[in-house]
TrEMBL record:
This is Glutaredoxin 2. CDD domains: GST_C_GRX2. One of its GO terms (cellular component) is cytosol. It comes from the Bacteria.
Amino acid sequence: MKLYVYDHCPFCTRARLAFGLKKQPFDLAIIMEGDVETPTRLVGKKMVPILQKDDGTSMGESLDIVAYVDGLSGERLFAGKDEAVDAWAKDAWPLLLKLIIPRFTKGDFPELATPEAREAYRLREEKAFGDLEALMAGTPGFIAELGPKLEALASLLEGRTAVSLSDITLWPLLRSLSIVKGVSFPTPVFVYMKRLESEGGVPLLFDQAI
Ligand SMILES: N[C@@H](CCC(=O)N[C@@H](CS)C(=O)NCC(=O)O)C(=O)O
């Protein structure tokens, strides 16, 4: 099975995390930003993640891929969900985007390895989010706004060991946030990030934080 992703994409990370937590082998394939042909050939539109199954058919939509992977072997891990965690993610997402998007466009990701691909991505995000340098300049305020939200998340994650569908949506957001320099992660949040990094096999982005 081949999973097509952009490395930076949190929706793609959902699928990668599911494979990792289920210990299900897969091949990871990077689609370059600006490559319209590959995803269109596989699923009829420019969108990732895409899972190409062993029978040659392909499927899109991260949560559909997660459900498919979950059903491949063993007991289902991603059946239940934690509504408080889901509510946190929904509430925090618009603020997280302001921090992560401008950094993603500058990041060291294989799908941005050519100047053309990076420019295609920058233009795509500028169209969606406006002036990316203005967002960078807003960083101190956004980080201050994030502080109490991360403290609230810490109380939700304290002592958490069970895995559910909520981890599939939450952890990729925190992975994305690890590209932001200067964010202070409360200990329970940091412990959670590192635990699922290790169990899921998707590297956090601290080493390229800007
Ligand atoms: N609902 C989709 C959303 C996936 C999504 O928004 N992927 C983005 C990358 S992060 C994408 O493919 N955007 C279109 C593009 O690259 O032009 C899912 O969960 O799989």
